[in-house]
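I hope you will forgive my troubling you with a question about protein structure. The record follows directly beneath this note:
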Amino acid sequence: MITENNLSENEEKKNSNEGSTEETLENTVSQDGKAHEGETEHEEEHVDTDITLADALKEMEKIINTANAGEDFKKFNQLKEKASHFIHDEVEDKKHEYAEAGNPPENFSYEHPLQSKFSALVNIFREKHDTYQKGQEEEQKKNLDHRQNIIERLKNLYTNSEPGTNLFKSIRDIKEEWSNAGQVAKSEFKILNNNYFHHLNQFYQMLDLNKEFLEQEYSHNLEKRQHIIERAKQLEHEPVIQKALNELQYLHKLWKEEAEPVSEEFREKTWEEFKEISNKIHERKSELSAAIETEQNANLEKKNQIIAEIKKLSEPSENPNHNYWQNAIRRVEDLRSEFLKTGSVPRKLSNQNWNEFKTILRSFNTTKNTYYKSLKGSQQANLDEKLKLIQTAQDNMNNEEWEIAVPLFKKLQEDWKKIGHVPKSMTNKIWDEFRDACNTFFNNYREKSNASTDNWKENYKNKKAILDDLKTVTDEDGSIERIEAIKTAWNNIGKVPRDKISINTEFNKTLREKLKLNKINELELKEEGLSENQLTDKARKIKSQISDLEGEIVKLENNLSFFKNPSRENAMLKDTFNTIDEKKAHLETLKQNLHNIIAGE
């Protein structure tokens, strides 16, 4: 059984092992393994489960800018390992994509955009840490000299104390000074501490002659031990197990360094009480392990679900299009972030889980890249189709045959939307060309339409009056001359608004009815009282009209050829076919009139 005034050599080893166990347990809670130079390549990834590369670099920079940057070596090193993994993985992904594109891997060259900042932060911290270490060594050396001086004073207190020295006050000052003295090197502490307590025991043995003083000193030391024990008892009810273990480790340190000798009757009793409480707290490790295991299993399930979803996205059941892959890319990026933010998994499955994640990511990228490679050929065909639409638009952007040109441009715009993607380098260029041609046409259309709207409305009123007059014609004497005058007046009136164009059809229909009523052919209509010169001018005008009309008919028929399978059944082309029929009928009339003039009929 252990009965050492402080702690025996064996008990020191036991506490040392307990501390090591607690440190290991703490590491298990905060990490998922060791650095990538060890057995795994990603364990440090989970030092801080929700940190990104940018956040890691920001935290590293924040540490560097603190007054004692070198003091946070452990935290900085964990952040460094995490940032290094991020950069390494992203470079490997780029290399994989490079090889997947058919390039020789040995020619791969890529520097991560944040690599230079990362390297700079590591180098700056290394310098600050070296400076901090040198300062610590100097400080520890001073503390070592100071503590050795305290031991020497303690030794003199019981060997060479002068008569009249207040031993009680002197020993209090020495113990207070020892407690407040700074740290020394670990390699020096054990011997130094044992030496101090050796001389302290020698001092107490010297005081054996002064029972009253010794009892006061033992009572004071007992209060220290009882205070440590009371703090340990409170830890039994601490809900956060890891916090209790960390605090217990600190209390063992206090007991080792400050729990000075007590009277014989309390030495074994206080130590056994403290040890029993410590054992109870350590028994709660199983609770912590169970909680960690439950949490890690939940994390594993979540990460496996993420892997399964990425796998599903990389194996679409139907032929995916560009929109599918763009949505899939965004979703995979979200899943990747979620995976990295999810906490650690059981250590024995950590490597396997990480490798499955990296493998499925690369599989997704390979499938996606294969799709976009196949698009290159179709994109060139799409480019050719769009260039044809641009040429058609540019050829017709000044066309003022609105009946044909307006539906033509609408059709061009619809066809443009239906054609797929083109090479990215050409997207903006061809769109600008197509848009400019369309804008030129529609701006011209709006300008001309607005300018002629008022005249066309007036023309419609005049034609409506003439049509009403024609409807009143009967078969009485003078009707033929009246019809000829009405037709001449009608032909001298210009266009009407587009939504009123049906009046032309109504007029022609009424004219045929009136001619039929009067038993006369339209070709027999003539204008009286013309001189020979007037007839020659009229013939010349008719020839010009015939030429223009033939050109208009050819142009209309050419415009129809831009449509696939143009038909009268197409509502958009119905008016165009009617216009062509009217122009052809008018052409035949003009040709017959020209024949009559030439023949002198």
Summary: The two ends are 149 Å apart (CA to CA). The longest helix spans residues 347-396.
